[in-house]
Amino acid sequence: MLSTLYxxxxxxxxxxxxxxGHFVAARIVGIPIQEFGIGFPPxxxxxxxxxxxxxxxxxxxxxxxxxxxxxxxxxxxPDEMMAAAPWKRIFMLLAGSFTNLVAxxxxxxxxxxxxxxxxxxxxxxxVDTGSPAEAAGLLxxxxxxxxxxxxxxxxxxxxxxxxxxxxxxxxxxYERDGKSYTVSLVPRTDYIEGVEGPIGIGLFAPLSFTExxxxxVNFLWFQVxxxxxxxxxxxxxxxxxxxxxxxxxxxxxxxxxxxxxNTIWFVASISFSLGLINLLPVPFFDGGKILLxxxxxxxxRRVPINIYYTLNLISLxxxxxxxxxxxxxxxxxxxxxxxxxTPTP
Length: 345
What we know:
By secondary structure, the protein is an alpha+beta fold. Among the domains are: 96-116 and 208-345, no CATH class; 123-204, Roll (Pdz3 Domain). 50% of the residues lie in helices and 19% in strands. It contains 10 helices and 8 strands. A 4-stranded antiparallel β-sheet has the order 5-4-6-7. It has a two-stranded antiparallel ribbon with strand order 1-2. The two termini are 31 Å apart.
């Protein structure tokens, strides 16, 4: 029940961030906004009014919306957004997805900044029960300094040396609370490849914030390539919830160093997906509205309002049918796998 509440709240915040991007962009280019709603109608109360905009709290706590000022007596141009110059509309429409993409980068940067990758210092983040590391007294948040007197500067170096010494006793030097200690242990030969390691520890390496941003962008580019590859499997609300719950379950078993990062990665993936999907050239989405604004921008010819509404209605119907199919598939043939959504450290 609590996981469901967290999931709904997370999705609502991501949608609200998207709409906030539209709102800020509209203010920047001077498109009047009648209402910025938190949640969906019916309206409960008007929280306050500022700059000609009513900020409202609505009954359905699932995101938010932006409503431009209406234009009375003009059937061809019903609101101030449609009346604005095409470049202003495009700027406003792009801003929602841009905000989601920025949110994804910042979330991933925070995760990478917290746990890092395999580039620099070697930090123990977890110790398997019954492993040689546990028997030797190693603990999460110990820093590995050397093996057999040879200084360790990267995870690759550590893994290479351990692999060369399976079944052979090694001396491992580590730092804890500013003091160095040396223990002896024997890397095991009987372990499950990809699940366990020869000595049974989890490892990460701290990153600077700049490096975290770079890693975040690299991961999102990986996401783009995954999404645009064939075959590609869409997931609906149940699929997203399953992934969210799985991420929380994984975080519950993590140490304090890595706790929460699986959920952060998954939420960042949802934010990124929301931004990307809204750029699809389908009239129901922002990308489709941008596409319909291009003839006016390039050729000074506006798409007739009746065609505009018809295309939106048709695309809405197709999107609803697709979402019904996707959500049914989530129940019949669940496909969510968090290991596909988070990079392997």
